[in-house]
Amino acid sequence: MYTLTDVTKTYDGRHQVTALDRVSVTIPDGQMVAIEGPTGGGKSTLLQMLGALDVPSSGTVTLDDIELSGARESQLQQVRAERVGIVFQNFNLIPTLSALENVQMALVPLGVSAHDSKQRSRAALEQVSMGDRADHLPSELSGGQQQRVAIARALVKSPRVLLADEPTGNLDGPMRDEVLQLLHEAWRAQSLTVIMVTHDSRVAASAQRRLRIAHGHLTKLSGGPRKGGRKNGLLDRPDSDDPRSGQMGPGATDHGPLNGQSGQRQPSGARDVASPEADD
Ligand code: ADP
Ligand code: MG
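The joint structure predicted for all components is written out below.
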């Protein structure tokens, strides 16, 4: 579970920028959250705090039992290596490494043996239907395929949290839907917390909870900590719910399933935790 309390981030350059302004929010384990908002609004900065890539100027960020905002760099490294997988808009694959080697990179900090690393990485590529492209270089893959590899790299460590910064931003049409579907499959299969930054209304509509950040202020659009684990928001229904209508609250959405599967997810105890919403 993430708990952010009064998180402020200022960048001091020639012009001081307040990228996050007293952001407070709780994200229970297993939730799928979309964060929307205009360019420059603070989305990537927020993901960096969640991913232990940076620390706030003031306020606290805790993930489970660890206060990231006060942690030593070695602790932050460990959190990044073990607990958090990150997917970026531009895939961020190493161009000179094969798909398999790119995935294996995520296991290097964990000290996994060469044999296990190969085995786990192959399995992760299979999971995203890229098993037959393990030896390909990124340049030999389409954008959608590169993003699949990046998702495999994020998942191979079996993280607790998957963060995605505009995961479909460089994709169009069917590739976009495929990547979104993969994120949902991983969420369902691995009991992940998934937090996605997006401009894409379909991606946003597929989340359980929608937050918006603009000028560093976080506000709630819909959803939130809920009782029970009814999964919502899937691909085959257009973005017909106006979240601002208030109809898309917890349990209110009942979007059709991704692949005709039930879309049911076991309720987890953690979802029952009542927590404050983002401050409006
Ligand atoms: P978003 O991802 O929503 O587009 P960002 O979190 O990247 O927004 O940026 C929020 C604000 O912080 C913007 O005004 C941006 O220019 C500024 N910013 C982001 N990173 C830095 C940095 N490393 N140094 C200075 N300013 C930054
Ligand atoms: Mg950004």
